[in-house]
Amino acid sequence: MQQIYCIPGLGADHRLFSKLKLEAELIPVEYITAESDDTAQSYAAKLLTQIKEENPILMGVSLGGILAIEISKLIPVKKLILISTVKSKGELPPYFSLVDHLPFNISKTASWFKNYGEWLKPFYNKISQEEMELFKSMLIQTPDDFINWGVNAVSHWNNETVTSEYLHIHGTLDLVFPTKWVNNYTEIKNGSHFMVVDKADMIGPIINEELKLITQKSLS
Questions:
Q1: What letters, b where the CB count within 10 A reaches 16 and e where it falls short, cover 173-202?
Q2: Which residue of 9, 109, 119, 178 lies most exposed, with the fewest beta carbons within 10 A?
Q3: What residue spans define the domains of the chain?
Q4: How many C-alpha atoms does 56 have within 13 Å on its Cβ side?
Q5: Sheet with 3-7, edge to edge strand ranges
Q6: Would the pTM of this model clear 0.85, i.e. be above it?
């Protein structure tokens, strides 16, 4: 059975992938402490010690997708599976460039997210109460400093291209990274930024089909 190293999104953990039914062993990549001067590039390098397989398959959601791309610049990867993320700075919505000009200190970002988590529900479309509770549970357990760092790291990401083979899956109702600025992806109709959970039944078969292609390629 193939292995997939899974990198969750900001404010999430391995539970983000719990509803995916995949024909592979999912290996969680755990977030570690980020230094204030870490970039997405330097932080990705710190995650390498958790990846034990040569030429791995990496799957990342949102920030996790960005970090998967950065890891692919450091080691050969068999495939990138990118979900609800962006592949370059050109796919970042313009409002991310405003982070340095916000009328409040970015260090308060995490406390705002945690205190007003319910206000974020529109960004995740019509998720169930159970799924909202999962979202809030993961968010609360994420250190404030890491959330603040992640927002800043995404906003200042300067990647231009992806050189590894990838499968990008993106929802039409993603309000964090709207499809207006995203290119070359497999569309999930009505998929929100949380679709890896609430649209897992649609995403799983797409990934499983990709895994079959990877296996066939390795045998040819």
A1: bbebbeeeebeebeebeebbbbbbbbbbee
A2: 119
A3: 3-219
A4: 27
A5: 25-28, 3-7, 57-61, 79-83, 166-171, 186-188
A6: yes
